[in-house]
């Protein structure tokens, strides 16, 4: 027998130039195919056409787009050594005059920032923030009681809920948008994410040469936000000076992060604290509010699931005088509903990264500096990976369910395929807090009220709108007092 016959064939590697690519125009490539708020859907559509690996051209930039969940999970775990967040994100952030925080930072700076952020999310601290979360939830309940029978702008109210929660937690500052109308900082923060998303995709960075009126408005908003955050950091320091006991038991994220920065070897200063506070504000509001809005719209579209969830919440929480973290963590069906809605409607449907070295991704050889767009949802909604993937079926997350007994493989895979909070060393550090917020809001809503209707414009399914996070468009909710 010749050695040739026994040798194991080396897999053939492809290069970026060998991969399929949607047809584009000279110089600008596929830029005209891209509508920023539908970018994720376009990439998902192309991935069905071109497969798990393809290249999109945006001017001089080449994006390697990947939708194989196993490869994506490996990419996310290969941080910080194999991948950074993109250079373009860091540049966009800097152009806008924003302080770098843990989300946008890379390398050694990220490591320090991440340590500081994690200290703020330590479970003992989250427990200390919990009473503030209850207060905000009570206010949401009062607000909704005043709106009985009329249309509630669902997302706007959920944003008020998450803004008040995060601002309270981040700064110990009670902005109370639920009772007192609009908040100034919030109206400025609202401009930042959509601008980051648009500028990240732009082929020509015109704002480096001239400013349109919208850019000047953005500059003003960033200046206001930066000044407000600096004030909050100064106030936080003053509080710690006056109440040294808060060093041991910080009452908010800001105090916890100032403490972490003040540890001898932290290498962090107040600018870093400010960058992380801004990051928490941006990362913690739309994400949680949009996830809740998607969950509610899916429940309304699936009445028997809504009834089962209502039954779980009422049977376990009726008669309780107040919420507790333990009780909220004992709501298995609610957990399953949240997981299932984030599988179908992940608010971060793509995670862009950039390679830090030459590497092989799947069967593709890529050079250093390659932009890699990880599509988080494609496999999660494919029947070949998840049975009846389009169906909203929380049961698939319950290990005790019949489905789990008969299709054990499918159940373990749904947990591996759906990664709404990312994965690996840069997985979302706010995930437990976000889940707690979602649970307390759902517990309040379904034990105190009956939902009369949740509708999207024209009676259709809600459309997806991407502006750094993916939101449902135009949801209105009507409530009745519980029978
Ligand atoms: C349902 C709500 C949320 C969702 C779906 C979500 C999702 C995500 C995702 C997908 C990432 C990227 C992870 C990766 O690169 O692997 C991320 C990162 C991050 N999230 Fe969240 N998030 C949520 C809520 C929050 C909250 C409430 C906070 C803080 C108050 C937060 C803070 C952050 C931060 C600081 C990062 C950057 C982590 C790093 O780069 O090391 N998130 N989140």
From TrEMBL:
Which of this chain's residues are annotated to bind heme? 428
The protein's matches in Pfam families, at most eight in alphabetical order, are given as: p450
Top-level taxon: Bacteria
Under InterPro entries, the record lists:
Cyt_P450 (IPR001128), Cyt_P450_CS (IPR017972), Cyt_P450_E_grp-I (IPR002401), Cyt_P450_sf (IPR036396), Cytochrome_P450_monoxygenase (IPR050121)
Coiled coil: which residue ranges?
Answer: none
What keywords sit in the KW lines? Heme, Iron, Metal-binding, Monooxygenase, Oxidoreductase
* Cofactor(s) the protein needs: heme
What GO molecular function annotation could you give as one example from this UniProt entry? oxidoreductase activity, acting on paired donors, with incorporation or reduction of molecular oxygen
PROSITE patterns from the UniProt entry: CYTOCHROME_P450
**Family per UniProt?**
Belongs to the cytochrome P450 family.
Q: Which protein is depicted?
A: Cytochrome P450
* Organism whose genome encodes this protein: Sapientia aquatica
Q: What is the lineage of its organism?
A: Bacteria, Pseudomonadati, Pseudomonadota, Betaproteobacteria, Burkholderiales
